[in-house]
Design a protein that fits this description.
The chain is an alpha+beta fold. The chain has ten helices and 18 strands. A hairpin with a 5-residue loop joins strand 3 and strand 4.
């Protein structure tokens, strides 16, 4: 960090009259600010940023100066070294600006596997912050869980369900799947059926019991929603451009369906719902051959739905969230219908 970088940040603040997700100011005319650990935490957990001590946000970012450069720098380094976990190593620069001394601190984003950076006296739950615009917000339980999962290498899809047993899986499909893998992987084929299931992440076992994993149930379960009732897809066709719009007869939905089953079954049933509710044009080419052209490219839709199912968050924090597939009358510049996917 050099003076040029700090001056550019000050010019930005004065031009747009606001702090940003990477620039923060702190008044320090009367002493070390009582609370600034939240910004040190949020910058470390997000993109990094610059904290400028000696400007007043309330007075259009005018220069007030700092009470004592040497003591302020000591307070900052003590905070970063003794009160933040993991330790922060800031880049600190003091210089004279508009006749007064200011001090700039540059915080780098820490490595992903070191997050969250938090204020130790408050603990990880109440001392971890993230930067949202010009605010330092406490991290939610879900944000903390996501970081902890990454750090601890937690794989949610192989989490065993101790309410289920092997009889809750479709054994016929399982046998077919395992035999198919054995035919291409000779070393894998040396193992017995139960060991193969464990190697594939379909079950988790100890010396006494075998439990299907979340992945096993969602892929081969006879009825996965008996264990995960919220892991379904809600498909609706809206007679308008927004949820809540009604049709000419007061109807809220033109069509709707709750799609359940395994991931493959939900994919196929959702595609059937979409095909049922989209237009299909019939084109006769120059050779007299008939070509059916759907309103949306089916391959693209299938890929989108598959991604929603496969890459959704299956953590314990979101087990009550389902996937929504909404078809609207017109939400685009051109007069085309649109489809919206989200995890709700």
């Amino acid at each position: 960090m050099d003076q040029k970088e700090v001056l550019e940040a000050i010019n930005y603040l004065r031009k747009y009259k606001t702090e940003t997700d990477r620039i923060e100011v702190k008044t320090a005319k009367g002493g070390f600010p009582k609370k600034c650990y939240d910004t040190f935490s949020s910058f470390s957990n997000k993109y990094g940023g610059i904290i400028i001590f000696g400007l007043s946000e309330d007075n259009d970012f005018t220069t007030e100066g700092v009470y004592d450069v040497k003591d302020l720098q000591k307070q900052i380094t003590d905070l970063c070294s003794d009160s933040m976990e993991p330790t922060i190593r800031p880049d600190i620069l003091a210089f004279e600006f508009e006749g007064k001394n200011i001090l700039a601190v540059k915080i780098e984003e820490i490595l992903q596997n070191k997050k969250p950076c938090y204020y130790k006296p408050s603990g990880i739950k109440n001392g971890s912050y993230t930067r949202i615009g010009d605010r330092d917000d406490k991290m939610t339980d879900y944000e903390l869980y996501s970081l902890q999962s990454y750090k601890d290498h937690i794989f949610e899809d192989t989490r065993p369900n101790k309410r289920a047993n092997i009889e809750d899986l479709n054994l016929e499909e399982l046998n077919s799947y395992i035999e198919k893998i054995k035919s291409t992987k000779p070393h894998f084929a040396k193992n017995d059926f139960n060991k193969c299931l464990k190697l594939c992440g379909i079950v988790d076992s100890n010396k006494e019991q075998v439990f299907p994993t979340l992945a096993g149930i969602m892929t081969f379960g006879e009825y996965p929603q008996s264990f995960y009732p919220q892991l379904f897809i809600a498909c609706i066709v809206v007679p308008g451009t927004e949820l809540g719009d009604t049709g000419s007869l007061g109807e809220r939905f033109i069509d709707n369906k709750r799609v359940e089953g395994t991931i493959e079954e939900m994919l196929n049933d959702t595609m059937s719902f979409l095909r049922r509710n989209m237009k299909t044009s019939v084109i006769i080419d120059e050779n007299g051959n008939r070509i059916n052209r759907t309103e949306y490219p089916l391959e693209a839709l299938r890929e989108a739905v598959a991604n929603a199912l496969i890459h959704r968050d299956y953590s314990t924090q979101t087990e009550n969230a389902y996937i929504s597939v909404n078809m609207y009358e017109d939400r685009s510049i051109k007069s085309w219908n649109t489809i919206w996917y989200e995890q709700t």
